[in-house]
């Protein structure tokens, strides 16, 4: 068998001569694909946190800080990404989930730039090996030598062993620190933390009292092992503080607060050796430094070395750059070189945000009477009672909106995240989709926010932790499935599956088991992927139809569309968090007779996609059923939600006379059917385009505003979705303008013009703010365009990478005329 040999993967016992069996080939590729995803910086809430995609396994990370004075040392230790660290920019400048990348961190307050280069190498039966090169460079050389301490930590949360291989020595360790271990799923492995430069303090700076106090050699690595309850390991920074405090207290007792030895000598770990599940390696550096962390799987043919790491880093940079410019070819005016790093950084940070999460979550399964008036008061009272119960544990492989603020999965964000990711690595995107669908409960519900385990919960205020099984969130993963099917169709069908698989294998070997080959292997089994996921899609689809059904009153309408009206559950006065567009104005007070046009649009979009999948999977009865829903929904979008006077779509509610009335707030909600491609009536399209293009309504030089300048709630209150520009919605608008601009019709010219300008406005602004601040932002303020909300938000804001890869102008599709047909 060609592939495993070339990749250095073991073939396993069953792989005899299978080169002609497509199933075995596909499995083999799938296995290689999984192997190359085993290890990663999958704790993205940390500046650097490596873990395998295994629950309760071996986690590793870095912590650093400045040791020049005591007060700074207390505040300066870096571990979890925090906005309060006041970094002058940080993140992956280059990253591929299968091979590694380079992260830079501009730590202004610690006077140091940290660079971490990560490279994974395939080989063996347990996810291969990896190395991380850690470099520190003082930001300002005129400042004098910067004293930095760096800790490498390894914590074992479950079964297995890790132990030190070095000779024990009470002064610390000279040369490399070597650990070895065996952990289920990883089998035998070695970890080497290389020596790096000796601290080399001038003798005058070394406080001789330290030697009297306890023999102490600062040119060494300090190693300390300890045993802690597994569920506390994620608080590793506190563990380190605790260990340092032990020494500090002794020094304090001996010398007094006024007379302490300097912190770069005092704040070092007292070495100890033996058994334990937490292993710490501390280094103290003066000035620039560099060392490697080398993880070798013993089943791999050769160990990870510094030399190999150097080679791989070089190789990866080259292949990343080539592949990146091919995958995301930028079109004018964004083909200019100045956008190259911008695109790479945004995308790398999106991909670098992929994490592996495991743990329990809080769910409140009590009954909520949302069909009665005043339901939200009862719901509020219930929420205050805090009836959430721990469920799980469950597991999720996902990317995240933002490392410092939202380092966890968000359902509707994820559909947007995967749109750039699927361009890069289809297999990873579909693996993430699968992971999300695996979270579905027996009814078809997936919790909107995935806060799995204590570590994830520690980042969320109590009142936001509990999830409710009647709360929905837009089904954006269907956007990804749409894209997947589109790509699958474009890869042509596979008449000769074996031939196709062999070709993929050749590609894989060409790229050394990385890159394009693996990332498209899924197309060889696209049909079985869809077949497997289809029952879940169907379950979720019917869950939406049942739990989010609206009550349609007072409309005169044909029977077939009777049921097609929907209402987001989980409303509160001023909010509809479940819709994803939190404070966008809706009916007030919340009412069980509300009908939400954005939700009806999502349902129409879902019905259409379900129909397409059913056709692809040759399920004609199902396809017919979805087709009927789709038709009825399209009918009701107009019938229930079009408002003539406002010239747009509006939510509906029931007034005090039990009459249905529209609730019109011009903004994203009122163009939602357009955003999801559900408007075919040319008059309505014209009206929507008027609103979009009107500077006094949605149009701004930075993208479309979430709410019209004319609306009474414009910029009011929290002003979250009441004016600011959001890139995800702008992305949908850009796609639709391109579609409508490509086909004949009275508004073709206008759509094409808006397409060209909106595309440029959105990208120009995100670029400008990135240049000025070093960050991508959650949203953009609508009058000046400045970054707003969460800083370092690489979720859907990174869609600008896809936007730059769209053509500058609409290419008109040649639609044959009637005569030609
Ligand atoms: C609050 C605060 C340390 C709000 O990007 C994630 C979501 C979107 O899905 C949604 O559309 N964001 C948008 O309106 C952020 C939601 C954060 C809720 C948790 C906890 C913790 O601060």
Ordered list of secondary-structure elements with their pairings:
Blueprint: H1 2-7, H2 22-35, E1 39-40, E2 49-52, E3 58-66, H3 70-76, E4 90-96, E5 100-107, E6 112-121, E7 129-138, E8 147-156, E9 161-164, E10 177-183, E11 187-193, H4 209-213, E12 222-226, H5 236-255, H6 263-266, E13 278-286, E14 289-297, H7 306-327, H8 340-352, E15 355-363, H9 375-385, E16 389-398, E17 409-410, H10 411-424, H11 426-437, E18 449-450, H12 453-457, H13 477-490, H14 497-510, H15 516-519, H16 526-547, H17 597-616, H18 620-641, E19 642-643, E20 648-649, E21 651-654, E22 660-663, H19 672-675, H20 682-693, E23 699-700, E24 703-704, H21 727-742, H22 748-773, E25 777-780, E26 787-791, H23 800-804
Antiparallel strand pairs: 1-2, 2-3, 3-8, 4-5, 5-6, 6-7, 7-14, 8-13, 9-10, 10-11, 11-14, 12-13, 15-16, 17-18, 19-20, 21-22, 23-24, 25-26
Helix pairs in contact: 2-14, 10-11, 10-13, 11-13, 16-17, 17-18, 21-22
This protein binds N-9'-methoxynonyl-1-deoxynojirimycin.
Give the gist of this structure:
The protein has 821 residues and is an alpha+beta fold. The protein is 36% helix and 18% strand. The structure holds N-9'-methoxynonyl-1-deoxynojirimycin (6A9).
């Amino acid at each position: 068998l060609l592939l495993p040999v070339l990749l250095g993967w073991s073939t396993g016992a069953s792989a005899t001569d299978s080169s002609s069996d497509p199933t075995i080939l596909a499995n083999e590729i799938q296995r290689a694909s999984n192997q190359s995803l085993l290890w990663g910086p999958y704790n993205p809430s940390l500046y650097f946190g490596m873990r395998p995609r295994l629950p309760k396994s071996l986690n590793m990370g870095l912590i650093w800080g400045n040791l020049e004075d005591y007060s700074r040392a207390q505040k300066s230790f870096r571990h979890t990404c925090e906005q309060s660290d006041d970094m002058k920019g940080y993140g992956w400048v280059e990253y591929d989930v299968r091979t590694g990348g380079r992260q830079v961190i501009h730590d202004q307050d610690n006077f140091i730039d940290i660079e971490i280069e990560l490279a994974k190498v395939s080989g063996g039966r347990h996810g291969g090996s990896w190395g991380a090169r850690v470099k520190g460079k003082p930001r300002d050389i005129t400042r004098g030598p910067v004293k930095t301490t760096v800790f490498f930590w390894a914590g074992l949360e479950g079964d297995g062993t890790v132990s030190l291989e070095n000779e024990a020595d009470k002064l610390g360790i000279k040369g490399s620190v070597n650990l070895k271990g065996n952990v289920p799923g990883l089998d035998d492995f070695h970890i080497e933390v290389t020596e790096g430069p000796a601290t080399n303090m001038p003798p005058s700076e070394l406080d001789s009292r330290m030697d009297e106090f306890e023999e102490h050699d600062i040119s060494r690595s300090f190693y300390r092992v300890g045993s802690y309850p597994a569920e506390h390991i994620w608080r590793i920074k506190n563990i380190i503080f605790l260990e340092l405090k032990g020494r500090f207290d002794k020094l304090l007792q001996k010398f007094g607060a006024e007379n302490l030895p300097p912190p770069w000598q005092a704040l070092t770990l007292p070495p100890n050796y033996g058994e334990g599940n937490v292993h710490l390696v501390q280094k103290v550096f003066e000035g620039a430094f560099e060392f490697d962390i080398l993880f070798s799987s013993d089943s791999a043919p050769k160990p990870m070395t510094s030399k190999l790491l150097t080679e791989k880093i070089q190789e990866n940079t080259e292949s990343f750059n080539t592949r990146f410019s091919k995958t995301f070819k930028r079109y004018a005016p964004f083909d200019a070189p100045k956008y190259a790093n911008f695109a790479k950084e945004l995308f790398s940070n999106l991909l670098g945000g992929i994490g592996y999460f495991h743990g329990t979550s809080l769910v409140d399964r009590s009954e909520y009477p949302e069909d009665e008036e005043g339901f939200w008061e009862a719901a509020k009272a219930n929420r205050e009672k805090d009836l959430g119960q721990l469920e799980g544990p469950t597991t999720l492989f996902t990317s995240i909106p933002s490392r410092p603020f939202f380092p966890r999965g968000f359902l509707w964000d994820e559909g947007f995240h995967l749109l750039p990711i699927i361009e890069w690595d289809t297999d990873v995107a579909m693996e993430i989709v699968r992971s999300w669908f695996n979270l579905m409960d027996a009814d078809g519900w997936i919790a909107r926010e995935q806060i799995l385990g204590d570590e994830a919960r520690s980042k969320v205020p109590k009142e936001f932790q509990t999830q409710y099984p009647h709360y929905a969130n837009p089904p954006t993963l269907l956007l990804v499935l749409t894209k997947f099917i589109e790509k699958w169709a474009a890869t042509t069908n596979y008449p000769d599956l074996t031939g196709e698989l062999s070709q993929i294998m050749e590609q894989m070997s060409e790229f050394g088991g990385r890159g394009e080959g693996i990332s498209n292997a899924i197309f060889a089994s696209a049909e079985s992927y869809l077949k497997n996921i289809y029952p879940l899609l169907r379950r979720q689809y019917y869950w939406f139809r049942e739990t989010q059904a609206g009550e349609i009153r007072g409309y005169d309408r044909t029977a077939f569309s009777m049921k097609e009206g929907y209402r987001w559950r989980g409303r509160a006065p001023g909010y509809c968090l479940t819709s994803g567009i939190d404070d966008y104005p809706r009916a007030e007070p919340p009412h069980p007779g509300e009908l939400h046009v954005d939700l009806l649009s999502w349902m129409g979009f879902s019905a259409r996609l379900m129909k397409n999948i059913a056709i692809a999977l040759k399920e004609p009865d199902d396809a017919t059923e979805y087709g009927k829903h789709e038709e009825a929904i399209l009918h009701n979008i107009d019938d229930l939600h079009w408002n003539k006077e406002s010239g747009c779509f509006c939510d509906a509610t029931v007034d005090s006379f039990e009459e249905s009335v529209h609730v019109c707030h011009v903004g994203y909600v009122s163009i939602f059917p357009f955003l999801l491609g559900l408007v075919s009536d040319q008059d309505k399209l014209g009206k929507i385009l008027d609103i979009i293009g009107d500077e006094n309504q949605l149009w701004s030089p930075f993208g479309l505003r979430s709410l019209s300048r004319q609306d009474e709630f414009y910029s009011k209150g929290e002003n979250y979705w009441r004016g600011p520009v959001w890139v995800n919605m702008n992305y949908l608008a850009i796609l639709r303008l391109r579609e409508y601009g490509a086909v004949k019709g009275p508004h073709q010219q206008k759509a094409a013009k808006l397409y060209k300008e909106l595309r440029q406005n959105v990208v120009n602004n995100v670029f400008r703010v990135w240049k000025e601040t070093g960050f991508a932002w959650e949203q953009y303020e609508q009058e000046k365009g400045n970054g707003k909300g969460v800083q370092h938000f690489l979720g859907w804001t990174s869609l600008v990478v896809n936007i730059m890869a769209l053509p500058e102008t609409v290419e008109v599709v040649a639609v044959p005329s009637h005569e030609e047909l």
